[in-house]
Amino acid sequence: MILAHIISKNKKQALRIIAILLEKKLLLHAAISKKTVYQYNKDQLRVEKQKHTLIIGKTKALLFNTINKELKDHFSENMPMLYAVPIVYMDEELATILRKSTAKV
């Protein structure tokens, strides 16, 4: 089990991503939040901030590559960042629901 983290540049794209992934049963639940991301601009020699939208969704680890492919298929020109964080412990009842409610692998 993992928490898929998807960083989108805007809320509209994030909501579309959630709709696609939930419809295909690639995520069980999804949460959305706004984040400020800082990065260093070498040309201007300063730190810049940008607003991004973070999606966090529970899913099976084996669905990660399928999620990545779906994102590439739908958002090839404006690909969001995708990475996963393992879920170390989870209530067995919730784990069973997650296994039964997401796509079969």
Topology at a glance:
Layout: E1 2-8, H1 11-23, E2 30-41, E3 46-59, H2 64-74, E4 81-86, H3 92-101
Antiparallel strand pairs: 1-3, 1-4, 2-3
Descriptors:
105 residues; alpha+beta
Number of helices: 3
**Structural class per helix/strand content?**
alpha+beta
Share of helix among residues? 25-40%
Strand order of the largest sheet: 2-3-1-4
Q: What composes the largest sheet?
A: 4 strands, antiparallel
Radius of gyration equals: 15 Å
Proportion of residues in β-strands: 35-45%
Please state the average pLDDT score: 95
Enumerate the spans where pLDDT stays under 50 for 5 or more consecutive residues: none
Shape: elongated
Order of helices and strands: EHEEHEH
What does this structure look like?
The protein has 105 residues and is α+β, with helices and mostly antiparallel strands. It contains three helices and four strands; from the N terminus they run βαββαβα. It has a four-stranded antiparallel β-sheet with strand order 2-3-1-4, covered by helices on one side. It starts with a strand and ends with a helix.
Structure at a glance:
The protein has 105 residues and is an alpha+beta fold. The protein has helices spanning 11-23, 64-74, 92-101; strands spanning 2-8, 30-41, 46-59, 81-86.
